[in-house]
Amino acid sequence: MSISVTSEIIAGVLILIGTLFSFLSAIGLIRLPDVYTRSHAASKSSTIGVLFTLIGTLIFFLIHEGVFSIRLLLVIFFVFLTAPVSAHLICRSAYRSNVPLSDTSVKDELKEVLEVDK
Questions:
Q1: Which residues, in sequence order, are CB contacts of 17 under 8 Å at separation 6+?
Q2: 6 with 35: CB under 8 angstroms?
Q3: Residue 80 CB: number of other CB atoms within 10 A?
Q4: How many CB atoms lie within 10 A of CB 108?
Q5: Residue 47: count of CB within 10 angstroms of its CB
Q6: Are 72 and 41 in contact (CB under 8 A)?
Q7: Mean pLDDT of successive 10-residue segments in the chain (118 residues)?
Q8: Cα 34 from chain centroid?
Q9: Dist CA 105 CA 59 (whole Å)
Q10: What transmembrane ranges does the database entry give (predicted)?
């Protein structure tokens, strides 16, 4: 096997893994019960899915066509920068707006701290 075929296989496998993670993220958004767990599914697994897909694309274009794309690196950087921050801010605003947790067996330790501060 030549280097070109090997790189295409590696890129294809990475893109497939990224697709699977993105699909799992979509299932998590549909199946999980509340905004807090949905935010977790949206930020963690979709970020990993985008990472694998873009790295696979970067490898393909780098080895197969000889093009190094700084745009792909910037997209990877900004996805890793914005996805966790936005998920955190969504969960924080939901918590401060008193959006209830889905499971009542979860102990809300932050609520006790916020009540002491008042």
A1: 52, 56
A2: no
A3: 14
A4: 12
A5: 20
A6: no
A7: 80 95 92 87 89 92 85 90 90 88 73 69
A8: 17
A9: 46
A10: 12-33, 45-64, 70-91
The pTM for the full model equals 0.79
Q: Which pLDDT score, from 0 to 100, does residue 74 have?
A: 93
Q: Which tokens go with 9?
A: 């296989």
Amino acid at 38: R
pLDDT at 105: 67
Contact 64, 43 (CB under 8 A): no
- Look up residue 114 and give its two tokens: 């916020």
What are phi and psi for residue 23, nearest 5 degrees?
-65, -40
DSSP 40-56: HIIIIIHHHHHHHHHHH
Burial 55-69 (b: 16+ CB within 10 A, else e): bbbbbbbebeeeeee
d(CA 72, CA 50): 11
